[in-house]
Amino acid sequence: MKKESKIKILLPILAVIVVTVLIFNRLLFKLKDQIDKVALPIQSKVYNVANRAISIKDIIFSYEEIIAENENLKKENMELKIQKERNQKILEENERLLKLLEMKENSIYKGNLKFARVSFSDINNLNNKIFIDLGAEDGIKIDMITVYGDYLVGKIVAVHNNYSEVELITNPNSIISAKTMRDILGIARGSDEEDGLLYFQPSIVEDNLKEGDEIITSGISDIYPEGIKIGKIEEIDEKENYGYKRVTLKPGFESKDLRELIVIGRENIVNRPIVKEEVEELEGDEKQ
């Protein structure tokens, strides 16, 4: 009887508990729905922000990789350019050295030749003076002349122990006794305009000068042997205000491009048969 009475008491209590739990659970579900309604938009925004952050991070990393790759490409490109310039300089130097060897083997000059490198040029006076790497220790003396190929470059005006100064024929102070291949005498002097050109002034009025004619040293000098090419006539201007024909010469070199040259002494002579043959060819052309 006691057990039955206890069961009767417990059953209502259990029923109340079950009902209470069910009601509470239902309230929890409703509360969860309410919370979800409020939280989902926030979660969605947080999710979108997180995705954007990840995308931005990926973009940043990607941008850094692109920048790094671009820098590497720039470096490689610069190295290739430097190597190309080096190869070009080596090629140019080899060509110049080969030309010097040809000059030595086929030189029109008889006597001792000294090969020199141009060690310095005054940027402000490119057409006036250069410095070479030979000096008194190498037997260089004042008034020795310098040539490039078969063209006159200038003369030595100052000698130091291991270098010398060369006055170029394009220097405004340079005056050289010259003549045409047809033996018309005159003087060649550097341009006052310092434009790397020269002027030829014939000693007589001459109407047979033509553009392209070669002007050579006359030999009427204590410094320059006869027959060295000075330059070619580039322009003949007959303006009345000159009082004479203004004959412009272009030398056989560009001062800015001079790297090597040959030094020869006054005792050297020019191999005249070569020049004579040129004169004979010109006379033959005139007869034809």
From TrEMBL:
Domain of life: Bacteria
Keywords: Cell shape, Coiled coil, Membrane, Transmembrane, Transmembrane helix
GO BP annotations, alphabetical order: regulation of cell shape
Record field: transmembrane: 9-29
Domain Rod shape-determining protein MreC beta-barrel core, chain residue ranges per copy: 121-264
GO cellular component term of the entry, any: plasma membrane
Pfam families: MreC
Coiled-coil regions listed: 63-107
InterPro entries: Cell/Rod_1, Cell/Rod_MreC_2, MreC, MreC_beta-barrel_core
Function: Involved in formation and maintenance of cell shape.
Family (UniProt): Belongs to the MreC family.
Name by which UniProt lists this protein: Cell shape-determining protein MreC
Organism: Fusobacterium vincentii 4_1_13
Taxonomy of the source species: Bacteria, Fusobacteriati, Fusobacteriota, Fusobacteriia, Fusobacteriales
